[in-house]
TrEMBL record:
One of its GO terms (cellular component) is plasma membrane. This is Prefoldin subunit. It is found in: Secreted, Cell wall. Keywords: Cell wall, Glycoprotein, Secreted, Signal. Gene3D superfamilies: Galactose-binding domain-like (2.60.120.260). It comes from Hibiscus syriacus. InterPro entries: DGR2-like_dom, Galactose-bd-like_sf, Pectin_Meth_Modulator. Pfam families: DUF642. The lineage of its organism: Eukaryota, Viridiplantae, Streptophyta, Embryophyta, Tracheophyta. Residues 21-178, 191-356 form the DUF642 domain.
Length: 384
């Protein structure tokens, strides 16, 4: 069931590869030739530089209102794009064939109805549910990923909804791309990207992290090595805006039991292993208690974060015996937590620095060694 994008066929020179960061006019701040709709000189239909449009696509401005007096939310800057019923914007992005990329974008709802956004590189696609508001600002950054099957990707954002109100429809902004690199598995750790340092593009001046929606294919995950199994997102956070146990990146489990991250790690059957990880508080005013349910093979254990004035995290561990050559490890938040300052923004415990260690000999080997030891001491007694 893994989600995998395949890029549109087209040729290009290697020197024109897309650079990490905003795609051309990804923030929609480039002025159209006939001006922005809010400009007094604007006449005729508004073009969106560097993008192709289909259906009712509007450039909206911060502070603009729709019927009923609802204020449109522009995630960042002054302008963004609103997609009407079955409307879309698209552009071609030069990529490296065979590489995996993450697309980061900001999205907001216009109305209270169910709204979603379909993001695709045809023929494959993924629909992101915008109904859940993860913070009181009314918008969130998201990230999805794709594998380039050719050397140009046709990136499409489409509103699949058919709302009764023509002024409804998702608003999108800040579209960026990043080529993903999957790190090698460490010699002393079976977990790939256990420190979460490899992931999608994050805007340095955005304090909301990046939401990672459902993704069932670890090979094309925006978080290399990891899958998001459930129907709610987890938040990818950075040390510029949150407390991170180690390094610059970590995961905040913001959706309770509906936000699960997992990985299949390589193991040797009948060997004893230990899953260790850092459990912490992001210092984002998240209401306690905070707790994580950790899974390792057939073992599951609940860990509560214990506040410590000297540290924002603690180390937890689960011992397990591998039953196969691949073992599933997974985490979710035991509780549904919100911030204490607004009681609405979703938050949760932080997980970082995940390791699966070989814990030593299994029971059979221990018994053999114990038997040899006893035989050795018996032999010495005979000699004496």
């Amino acid at each position: 069931m893994g989600f995998r994008f395949y890029a549109h066929i087209c040729s290009f020179t290697s020197s024109s590869l897309a650079e990490d960061g905003l795609v051309a006019n990804g923030d929609f701040e480039t002025r159209p030739s006939n001006g922005f709709p809010s400009d007094s000189i604007s006449v005729g239909p508004t073009e969106i530089p560097s993008w192709r449009t289909k259906g009712t696509v509007e450039l909206v401005s911060a502070g603009e209102k729709v019927s009923g007096g609802m204020l449109l939310i522009v995630p960042r800057g002054t302008h963004a794009v609103r997609l009407g019923n079955d409307a879309e914007i698209s552009k071609e992005v030069p990529v490296e064939k065979g590489s995996t990329y993450a697309i980061t974008f900001s999205a907001a709802r216009t109305c209270a109805q169910l709204e979603s956004l379909n993001v695709s590189v045809p023929p494959a696609s993924q629909t992101v549910d915008l109904q859940t508001l993860y913070n009181v600002q009314g918008w969130d950054p998201y990230s999805i990923s794709f594998e380039a099957d050719e050397d140009k990707a046709r990136l499409v954002f489409r509103n699949p909804g058919m709302e009764d109100d023509p002024e409804c429809g998702p608003i999108i902004d800040d579209i960026a791309i990043k080529k993903l690199v999957t790190p090698d598995t460490p010699k002393d750790n079976a977990v790939v990207n256990g420190d979460f340092e490899f992931g999608p593009w994050m805007f340095q001046n955005v304090s909301l992290g990046v939401l990672l929606p459902t993704n069932l294919d670890e090979e094309t995950s925006p978080l290399p090595g990891w899958m998001i199994e459930s129907n709610r997102a987890v938040r990818y956070i950075d040390s510029n805006h949150y407390a991170v146990p180690e390094g610059k990146r970590a995961i905040e489990l913001v959706s309770g039991k509906e936000g699960i991250i997992s990985q299949m790690v390589e193991t040797t059957p009948n060997k004893l292993y230990s899953l260790t990880f850092s459990l912490g508080h992001a210092r984002d005013k998240c209401k306690e208690p905070l707790a994580v349910m950790a899974f390792a093979g057939d073992q599951a254990q609940n860990f509560h974060y214990t506040p410590d004035s000297n540290s924002t995290f603690q180390v937890a561990s689960v011992n397990f015996t591998a039953k196969a050559d691949r073992t599933r490890i997974a985490f979710y938040s035991v509780y549904y937590n919100t911030r204490t300052d607004d009681m609405s923004s979703l938050c949760g415990p932080v997980v970082d620095d995940v390791h699966v260690w070989f814990s030593g000999s299994d029971g059979t080997e221990v018994r053999i060694l114990l038997g040899l030891g006893l035989a050795f001491w018996a032999y010495l007694l005979v000699l004496v």
